[in-house]
Amino acid sequence: MRVETLALFLSVAQYRSISHAARQHYISQQGASAAIKGLEAELEVALFDRTPTGLQLTGAGQAIAKEVQALLDAYRRVQVAAALGDQRWEGEQLTVVSMPFVTNRLDAMFSEYDSMAVGPRLRIVEQSLLEIARMYAQDESGALFLVALPSFAEGIDRRVVDDFSPLVECELMVACAASHPLASRGCATPEDLGSMPIACYCEEFLMRILTHIMAGGHPNIQLLTSNLAMIGRAVASGEMITFTDSLSTFLDRPDPNTVVRPIRPEVLFRVGMLGVADESGPAARFARFMRQYLSLSCSTYLERHGTASALAADASGGEENS
Predict the structure, then answer these.
(1) DSSP secondary structure letters along 94-107
(2) The domain containing residue 141 runs over which residues?
(3) Does residue 182 sit within a domain?
């Protein structure tokens, strides 16, 4: 019985769809269906009934799903404990200067770290990419700087690009209610973003990406706010779409009422950090924790999107060939 299969089972239960859960876990629908059938055979019990509105947990499936959720929660805590290793802060406090866009992407990691780390909590300061570039050039505090860089580099400080160490690659995606017309389609296009009402986070980096996507056009933004609950309500109503990304979709528990679709042409960006000088300091230790956390908790995701070492080698190769 594999942990990945149990996680897939929960996704099928929440989405009530094997095909939807398969996309979430980056496997084929046939592979997901075979895994669920194998789990039912191993447990010798039917987990789902097929209904006109989708798959429905059987009585036994409901009881098993409750225990599987507890097991996976414990497994994630084991992964966090392993990522922490022998690290002890011993009174040292670390300031993490992060773009709001990155803080939202890594929210699950920060939350799990805070729940298990021993010692002072992180001090997180949110700044725009432009402000981080200015602060980074003058910093002598030993802070850790977390940023996201798009696949295009127009207008980005050269020192930031040169000192950037990628952790994970992400794909910008669109989220909508299951009742929204986009939910029945395979992807969203720039034309869709120009016509469909959008609710999105007020973030300079996201606006930069949207400007690039629209290539002179304008996204149909009807709600621009830092209030995530307000965005959630607008999307849940079925009236608006919003933006998410592949990493957040992978790390967060799926919402059965929300459908995520890619944007075509593909829009990629990398989340990472700016150079850590002191290899023995708290910034370096937390950087090691992040790499280990992603390696343990996102192994199947990284198989598709690339490991940090592969991304770094790719970045170096790109600079050498430029």
Answers:
(1) -EEEE-HHHHHHTH
(2) 89-167+272-321
(3) yes
